[in-house]
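URGENT: need a sanity check before tomorrow's submission.

F., can you look over the dITP/XTP pyrophosphatase record below? I want to be sure the sequence and structure line up before it goes out.
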Amino acid sequence: MKDMIIATKNSGKTKEFKTFFAEYDINAMSLPELSHEIEDIEETGTTFEENAALKAEQIAELLQIPVLADDSGLVIDALDGRPGVFSARFAGEPKDDQKNIDKVLAELEGVADRTARFVCVLAVSVPGEKTVFKKGYCDGRIADAQAGHNGFGYDPIFIPKGYPQTMAQLSSDEKNRISHRSDAIHQLRDWVKNLR
Ligand SMILES: O=c1nc[nH]c2c1ncn2[C@H]1C[C@H](O)[C@@H](COP(=O)(O)OP(=O)(O)OP(=O)(O)O)O1
Ligand SMILES: [Mg+2]
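Structure tokens as predicted:
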């Protein structure tokens, strides 16, 4: 089994990557699982691509091994695309999923157009090579109230298109079939196979 470093400290993302990569017999390891502590990388970019590249390239440079990073977020049409790249810290620092959910629901109170999408950009950095990007989407809308306890982040208020319930009410298998992260990771399939 081969190791793959995922440049994330998010346990929800990590769980999903472990499931995806296990299919390819790859052991996905997140930053908190490494033997030495890795400092937070400042997400100073204005796009998902820039932030994903910052995370992947800095960790790949530091460790001198291939690294995958994920920058993702929730894009809401009625909010002109917010919270977008600022999804993690929408309600301020330190990041707090519940506060972020409350802020979205408050901003959308009385708003009829609730269409939104999750976006996930994956960046793969191999030391000395050009960074590769893949982008995935999951269309849906924002619920009137939160529901469900599965997943992480904004899952309790996101209703995927074609479903009656929120992402947080779906099983992890179901989420992993339809999510923005799964969309992006499946585009990396060939690259992942070559890693073996
Ligand atoms: O499947 C998802 N289901 C629900 N919410 C999600 C999902 N995917 C991303 N999100 C939200 C969580 C966070 O508010 C932001 C990601 O921010 P983002 O900077 O990429 O991740 P993060 O700071 O949590 O961890 P890290 O940078 O260490 O990978 O979008
Ligand atoms: Mg982050």
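My own read: Strands lie at 2-6, 26-30, 67-76, 115-125, 132-142, 158-160. The chain has one domain: 2-195. If you see anything odd, call me.
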